[in-house]
Known about the structure:
Layout: E1 5-11, H1 17-29, E2 32-38, H2 43-52, H3 64-71, E3 77-81, H4 87-96, E4 100-104, H5 111-124, E5 128-131, H6 138-148, E6 155-163, H7 177-180, H8 188-191, H9 196-212, E7 216-224, E8 233-240, E9 245-251, E10 260-267, E11 270-275, E12 281-286, E13 292-295, H10 304-308, H11 319-338, H12 353-370, E14 377-378
Parallel strand pairs: 1-2, 1-3, 3-4, 4-5, 6-9
Antiparallel strand pairs: 6-10, 7-8, 7-14, 8-9, 10-11, 11-12, 12-13
Amino acid sequence: MAKKLQYGMVGGGPGSFIGGAHRKAIAISGKAALVAGCFSSKMEKSLKTAEELDIAPERTYCDFKEMAKAEAGKLDFVVIATPNNTHYACSKAFLEAGINVMCEKPLCFEIAEAEELVALAKEKDLFFGVMYGYTGNAMAKFAKELIAEGKIGKIVDVIAEYAQEWLIDQLDESTSRTAQMSVWRTDPKVSGISNCVGDIGTHIENTVAYITGLHPVRVAAKVDYFGHPLDLNANILVELSNGATGNFWCSQVATSYRNGLAVRVFGDKGMIEWHEEDCEYLTFCAKGEAPQKMARNCGYVYGRAAEVARIPSGHPEGFYESFANIYDSFCGAIAKKKAGEPLTEADLDFQKAEDGLAGVKYLHAVIDSGKNDSAWREV
């Protein structure tokens, strides 16, 4: 049996959802073991998490820079599961220490920072993944496969949205703004120039790019702040790299929506539609024919979508499994590289620093457009 990779984590301490999601996904993948961590900037909290995860105290830290130096040559990769404002510094520290990185999105605050990280990963010949988790879903991969095969023809329009309601109370003028703004995602010092577009809007850009191969080249955006420092809602007109138009909507004040990521791709020969909340299914309709609702891991599903399916159809897979599929590729690529084996396209089926850079550029263009009367901005 091949020896498991050794990984560390920055962030993911007490109360963290996303850190736990990464750990669970890697456990599902089964290709790496957690051996070190800087789970909090407070040593007491970091040690508490380390004890729960059976990690030795001597490999537990409260300073990520100290961890990067101490773990150089020991870790195969590190997972960065911290708030946005630390992504750049954490990533840079571990890349400089020669350690492969998997970082939460958005990659960082500034375009120049993202470009620096891309260049540094290339210079050090390291893998740098950015966790856009929905690209790991089997039926998102099947959508990508069908579009690449030309099943819907030339893409002429893309309608995509990501709607949530979790900040709806921020529209209530009677509620204390100080209390409302306590969530770190709505704090400019921690979240950066954007809340809604940065948090969920970048998922739209990335998922559309992954499925279609098309990237925004310019945007015109109406961004809504409702009196707050950061955005809560945005409607974005997008020109894609093949000349097609896209309409992207993201909102965290959309009553009744929980995690409504949906992508509809229209071509001159048909259409494809995928919803993250109903992620086991993909709707495909060829021009002039009845729509087909395709289910994961059935006989007609093939390619990467079939390869990553973990359990029989009818037993739902979801969020953790999507992350796990990404870690299968990421860890597999590291292991093959260590063994001197050639890498396949499937090995590299994870979002990279370049995709993170694209997300940062998109985010800046959208916010800039929104602050300039929805003027077109190049991405």
